């Protein structure tokens, strides 16, 4: 007996379940297109935490006597993505009884059915932020590695070197730039312009906006993906920045919805990955690097923070593995904590300390990676 089922999630106006077609009645344990689609909800896009179904990438599924065909609509310049998807999809479908699994990848525009009203290619709205020559993201695999501290000192060091720089705190789950920059009263001071744009505040001469200014009592920890996506997009595009050479964006740690939404909202010149020296930290940094690669965001390099006390080496290892620059190391320094707590970043409070000089060196490397080769080169030893 041959039974064939197929499902086209995108084409079904009434949701996935109603999109199933079946040429014969199916037993509960039988592999159907619906069961395949449900199983694909557990398959994340390589490097991300979001699954293929919620991402809208599953274009069509058909099953015939255990032989499964999955058509995915996506674009990636990473040549390893198709084979990685095929193996992760095969891994979830084999235990369900799939005998063969064929994964076909088509570009989103080539999908045969017209797009459903209200759903569109999430990348279609990506814009070049007109006011900024470069938007760079600072990410990390896990929290507490000093990502925000690096972002703040990096931005201030770039500004000190003469680049028009600003900071966007997009760590919606743990915005910390108001503390690190000494502007904890920002929520009370921030204003909208007449044309409904957020007017940045200033801290240590740097224009800055933090998601924390707008959170109120709400906690994005419970937000669902689409809410995060909408908020990040509005936030990324809705600030009345002055003309900038570089906008530095502090991301939340990990590989969740925020980096994805940011990359879909604005064109990023590149990303920096911050890691601690340990091997555990390196493993997390790899995930972050892989995520940026999956999102087609250039890897500007790795910074190793808190060297010394926790060992040394993770940054260089990960940089070599991903063929990206090693941007430098910042030693562990108790005074960096005190600087952060006081709201006066190390590059301002103690520019001549070892950590201050190290932050300045990292900034030079980042500026060079973005194409500035001669920024105040004489100043730093
Ligand atoms: N090089 C360093 N030496 C000592 N403490 C540091 C260093 N870098 C960051 N810290 C401290 O580590 C803590 C976490 O830093 P933070 O930048 O908030 O991390 P993340 O943004 O990755 O969660 C803060 O108290 C900060 O002052
Ligand atoms: Mg942080």
Radius of gyration: 23 Å
SS strand fraction: 15-25%
Largest sheet: 8 strands, mixed
Number of helical segments with 4 or more residues = 12
Ligand list = adenosine-5'-diphosphate, magnesium ion
Largest sheet strand order: 10-11-7-12-6-13-14-15
- The CATH topology of the largest domain turns out to be Rossmann fold
Q: Multimeric state of these chains? A: single chain
Q: Mean of residue pLDDT?
A: 86
Compute the number of strand runs.
15
Low-confidence stretches: 10-26, 110-117, 377-381
User: Any idea how many domains?
Assistant: 2
CATH class of the largest domain: Alpha Beta
The CATH superfamily of the largest domain is known as P-loop containing nucleotide triphosphate hydrolases
Outline: globular
SSE-based structural type: alpha/beta
3D structure, described in words:
The chain has helices at residues 33-40, 81-93, 147-160, 177-180, 186-189, 225-237, 257-265, 279-294, 314-321, 334-342, 346-349, 354-369; strands spanning 4-7, 21-22, 58-64, 67-73, 100-106, 132-139, 165-169, 191-192, 198-199, 201-203, 206-210, 244-250, 270-275, 299-307, 326-331. Helices cover 31% and strands 21% of the residues. With 381 residues, it is of the alpha/beta class. The protein has two domains: 4-110, 2-Layer Sandwich (GMP Synthetase, Chain A, domain 3); 132-369, Rossmann fold (3-Layer(aba) Sandwich), CATH 3.40.50. Strands 10-11-7-12-6-13-14-15 form an eight-stranded mixed beta sheet, with helices on both faces. Strands 2-1-3-4-5 form a five-stranded mixed beta sheet, covered by helices on one side. A two-stranded antiparallel sheet has the order 8-9. The protein has twelve helices and 15 strands. Strand 10 (201-203) and strand 11 (206-210) form a beta hairpin. Helix 8 (279-294) packs parallel to helix 9. The protein binds adenosine-5'-diphosphate (ADP) and magnesium ion. Magnesium ion is lined by residues 147-148, 171, 174, 176. Magnesium ion binds at residues 147-148, 171, 174, 176.
């Amino acid at each position: 007996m041959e039974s064939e089922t197929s499902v086209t999630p995108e084409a079904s106006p009434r949701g996935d379940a109603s999109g199933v077609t079946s040429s014969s009645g199916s037993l509960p344990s039988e592999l159907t297109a619906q069961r395949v689609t449900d199983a694909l909800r557990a398959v994340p896009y390589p490097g991300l935490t979001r699954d293929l179904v919620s991402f809208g990438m599953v274009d069509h599924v058909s099953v015939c006597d255990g032989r499964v065909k999955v058509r995915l609509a996506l674009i990636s310049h990473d040549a390893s993505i198709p084979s990685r998807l095929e193996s992760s999809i095969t891994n979830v479908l084999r235990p369900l009884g799939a005998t063969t699994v064929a994964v076909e990848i088509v570009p989103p525009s080539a999908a045969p059915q017209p797009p459903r009203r209200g759903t569109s290619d999430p990348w279609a709205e990506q814009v070049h932020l007109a006011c900024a020559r470069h938007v760079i993201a600072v990410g990390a695999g896990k929290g507490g590695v000093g990502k925000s501290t690096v972002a703040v000192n990096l931005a201030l060091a770039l500004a000190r070197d003469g680049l028009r720089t600003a900071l966007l705190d997009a760590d919606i789950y743990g915005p910390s730039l108001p503390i690190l920059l000494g502007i904890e009263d920002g929520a009370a001071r921030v204003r909208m312009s007449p044309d409904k744009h957020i007017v940045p505040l200033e801290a240590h001469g740097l224009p800055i906006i933090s998601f924390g200014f707008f959170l109120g009592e709400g906690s994005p920890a419970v937000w669902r993906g689409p809410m995060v996506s909408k908020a990040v997009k509005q936030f990324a595009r809705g600030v009345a920045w002055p003309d900038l050479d570089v906008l530095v964006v502090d991301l939340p740690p990990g590989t969740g919805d925020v980096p994805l939404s940011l990359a879909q909202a604005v064109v990023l010149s590149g990303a920096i990955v911050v890691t601690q020296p340990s091997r555990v930290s390196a493993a997390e940094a790899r995930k972050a690097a892989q995520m940026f690669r999956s999102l087609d965001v250039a890897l500007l390099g790795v910074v190793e923070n808190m060297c010394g006390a926790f060992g040394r080496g993770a940054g260089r290892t990960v940089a070599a593995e991903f063929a990206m620059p090693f941007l430098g190391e910042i030693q562990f320094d108790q005074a960096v904590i005190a600087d952060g707590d006081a709201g006066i970043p190390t590059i301002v409070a103690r520019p001549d300390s070892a950590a201050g000089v190290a932050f300045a060196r990292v900034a030079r490397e980042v500026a060079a990676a973005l194409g500035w080769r001669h920024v105040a080169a004489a100043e730093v030893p």
